[in-house]
Amino acid sequence: MSEALTQITLIGTKLATVGMEFTFVGSTPECEPCKLRNTCINLEPTRRYRVLGVKGEIVHECPIHESGVRAVEVAESPVIVALDARKAFPGSKFVYEPIICDDKDCSMFEICHPIGIKAGERYTIVEIAGEAPEECPKGNVLKLVELRR
Questions:
Q1: What's the 3-state SS for 16-57?
Q2: pLDDT-based confidence at 3, cuts 50/70/90?
Q3: Co-location of 69 and 116 in the same domain
Q4: For 86-134, what is the HEC assignment?
C-alpha cells in the first residue's frame, strides 16, 4: 500500500498536536486579507486530515484562532465506510458510489455516507474493519472498510 501524501499547512495552536484529526471546512471572509492565506487554505474542503508532525515553534497571529496558528505536517485520514460486503476486498481499487439510501434518521446513515468521501472518486480498500454495527433496514449486507484515496 502507498502511504498518504503529506502537506504542510497552518492550524490553530490548540489543534496542533500529533494524531489530532480534523475536517477542513475552508476559508472565511476574515482569511481574505491574510498574507498566510495560501499556506492555511491549501487543503481540500470536506476532507479529513491527521496531524503527523508539528513544524517549529513559531506562532503566527490569526483572526480566526485566538491563540494563533502553527505549521504542521498533515495527511488525509483514512475513512471508515460501510460498503456492500460483496465488494469489500482488501487492496481493491474502485470508484466509490454511496449506498442508495436517503433515510437520514437511520443510525448507520453517517457510516454509509461519511464526510470526506465523494461519489465518483477512486479509492483503495486499506483493510476490512469488521461487520456493520447492525443490520441494514433496507436489507443491504454491509462490511466496514477503511478507505484511502
A1: CCCCCEEECCCCCHHHCCCCCHHHHCCCCCCCEEEEEEEEEE
A2: low
A3: no
A4: HHCCCCCEEECCCCCCCCCCCCCHHHHCCCCCCCCCEEEEEEEEEECCC
Same domain, 70 and 128: no
**Domain hosting residue 139, numbered range:** 79-148
> How does strand 79-84 pair with strand 93-95?
unpaired
Considering the domain architecture, whether residues 59 and 17 belong to the same structural domain is answered as yes
pTM for the predicted model, two decimal places = 0.79
Chain segment 56-79, per-residue pLDDT in tens: 999 999 999 999 999 999 999 989
Are 120 and 91 within one domain?
yes
